[in-house]
Design goal:
CATH class: Mainly Alpha
Number of helices: 4
Largest sheet: none
Low-confidence stretches: none
Number of strands: 0
Mean pLDDT: 87
Helix content: 40-55%
Strand content: under 5%
Shape: globular
CATH architecture: Orthogonal Bundle
Order of helices and strands: HHHH
């Protein structure tokens, strides 16, 4: 599963919004994701990908695309 699919799946699970309705430009606040839901989602993604997002980046996450980009930045490059 790629980063976009996993991010979308976990945001869907955390927000209760169907996967098909989650677009990269969607604001997390519009998906009813408050700070706690956002944190839980990021922690689930960190566990899934075995990586960690910097705390500074965590507070910059406003859209679905922001989450995708944050994980791409810390993902190891394919060998």
């Amino acid at each position: 599963m790629n980063v976009e699919d996993k991010v979308t799946e976990l945001i869907s699970r955390a927000s209760g919004v169907p996967v098909a309705a989650i677009k990269p430009e969607a604001k997390l606040s519009d998906l009813d994701m408050e700070s706690l839901e956002k944190l839980e989602c990021v922690m689930s993604l960190e566990d899934a990908f075995k990586i960690e997002i910097k705390e500074d980046d965590l507070w910059r996450l406003r859209t679905v695309q922001d989450v995708i980009d944050a994980f791409r930045r810390v993902m190891p490059s394919p060998a």
